[in-house]
Write a structure and sequence with these properties.
With about 475 residues, the protein is mainly β. The chain contains no helices and 39 strands. About 0% of the residues lie in helices and about 55% in strands.
């Protein structure tokens, strides 16, 4: 693969001319962001792959319709399609490409509790169920080997196991890799040059980051980091020397972390501790060996990007328009250009950003005086214990900071996780004189639930995560 030149550092610039926009550009590279799909609310996993021509393919979840979707810009513009229209299919999904640009997607069917797999290798989408034992398929990740065979890591929720499926033998074989407690959440899979398998994942019982591999000929699982609770995305990449690199999230501190065994032993570092950053993250290795990570800054609602080069982390804000960056997925092409799919929470759009095409940033208008409304929720992440309750406060503002009284605020919890969390009132309530609507959440079962709040007369929405420990 070709090697691009190291990118120079530049300064932060802020321009105010009636309208304002901000560009943070520490790499002297312009990232272009665009809308892929605005016809729904795409609150769920996104995954992305790039072919040898630099064309992009995505799998993603339509939260409103509960279906698995697919998008590509092969034609020169984004074309989207529904791949599986069965109810609640695709919230967890992952995509890989073969050398002909055919797509292979693993995903979770929550209505049946099955791991499913679909491909358009034959010219049309063909779907099969890979694992229907228990509640299988959440937190899945897919990769193809050099022979075009498929490998999938995933979580079996009933037993709390890390599982692995492959069709290398010609038929699908599933096996349990780790059953030492509640393990296997946030799994990420990658292969080395010998087609050996590497998997990063989360141990929910102990709050630790774990890693499994079959490089020795049998499966071995190790704990990479046990210094805190790492309840958030893990993302794994293998470099040209077959060394592993993992980005992950320190839930306790709200930090983006990075681990590698490049030295022969696992070394962990904090990549970014500026606010609550990294709950959603994705890693890629450039041909130069530089490590790049896309991730979400929850405090500021922005998509960030970090590169570890010459022994130093350098950072860039890629998109700050709206609440952007959740469910991000990063891939690099053969020319080392970056490609990222991600979610905009305030309008539900699926977005895409790349540094391959240089464009002018889009200005963001300064607010008017109470001509529009906004909605916020506090805390942004609610942690409760089983059978215990805690309040979430939703506040409705005018653009000038005024508090809106008597506004109906609706709450929505995905049906597939209602068994984990209950809420009162169940559907809606109105704001008080302080512009506040109070909802009480009760933990029913260990796990996480995504909750959406909307308010009458506003397109904006706000989302939180409720974790039951």
């Amino acid at each position: 693969m070709g090697i691009i030149n190291k990118k120079c550092l530049a300064s932060l610039s802020l321009v105010l001319i009636g309208l304002f926009f901000a560009v943070v550009n520490t790499f002297a590279v312009t990232w272009n962001s665009e809308i892929v799909d605005s016809n729904g609310d795409f609150d769920g996993d996104t995954s992305l792959a790039v072919d040898t021509s630099g064309k992009v393919y995505m799998s993603y979840y339509d939260y409103d319709a509960g279906v698995l979707k697919y998008a590509s810009n092969v034609s020169g513009s984004w074309v989207t399609a529904t791949v599986d229209s069965n109810s609640d299919a695709g919230e967890y999904n992952s995509i890989a490409l073969d050398t002909s640009g055919k797509a292979y997607i693993s995903y979770y069917d929550s209505s049946k509790g099955d791991l499913k797999y679909t491909t358009n290798a034959s010219g049309s989408w063909k779907t099969i169920t890979v694992d229907s034992n228990g509640d299988a398929g959440q937190y899945n990740s897919v990769v193809l080997d050099s022979s075009g065979k498929v490998h999938i890591s995933y979580y079996e929720a009933n037993k709390g196991d890390l599982k692995y499926a492959s069709n290398t033998s010609g038929s699908w074989i599933t096996r349990t890799i780790d059953n030492s407690g509640d393990v296997g959440l946030y799994s990420s899979i990658a292969l080395d040059s010998s087609n050996r398998v590497h998997i990063s994942y989360y141990d929910a019982d102990n709050g630790t980051l774990k890693y499994a591999t079959n490089t020795s000929g049998s499966w071995v699982s190790t704990t990479v980091d046990s210094s805190a609770d790492f309840d958030g995305d893990t993302s794994l990449a293998i470099d040209a020397l077959n060394k592993a690199h993992i980005s992950y999230y320190n839930f306790d501190a709200g930090d983006l972390k990075y681990a590698t065994n490049a030295s022969g032993a696992w070394i962990t570092t904090t990549a970014d501790s500026n606010g609550d950053v990294g709950a959603y993250n994705s890693i890629a290795i450039k041909s130069s060996g530089d490590v790049s990570i896309s991730y979400y800054d929850a405090d500021h609602g922005v998509l960030k990007y970090a590169v570890y080069t010459f022994g130093t982390w350098v950072f860039e804000i890629l998109d700050s328009i709206g609440d952007v960056g959740q469910y991000n997925f990063l891939a690099t092409d053969i020319s080392d250009y970056g490609h990222i799919s991600y979610y905009r929470a305030d309008n539900g759009y699926l977005l895409y950003s790349t540094d391959k095409v240089l464009t002018t940033p889009t200005p963001v208008s300064t607010p008017g005086i109470c001509k529009a409304s906004s909605i916020t929720a506090s805390p942004g992440k609610l942690v409760i214990k089983e059978k215990e309750s805690s309040n979430e406060t939703v506040t409705v503002h005018g653009d000038n900071g005024c508090l809106a009284e008597g506004v109906t605020v609706q709450v929505k919890i995905n049906e597939s996780v209602r068994k984990k969390v209950s809420v009162s009132p169940e559907d809606s309530t109105t704001t008080n004189g302080n512009g506040e609507a109070i909802f009480t959440f009760t933990g029913e079962k260990k796990g996480k639930a995504k909750v959406t709040f909307t308010a009458d007369g506003m397109d904006e929405k706000v989302k939180i995560i409720v974790k039951v420990k």
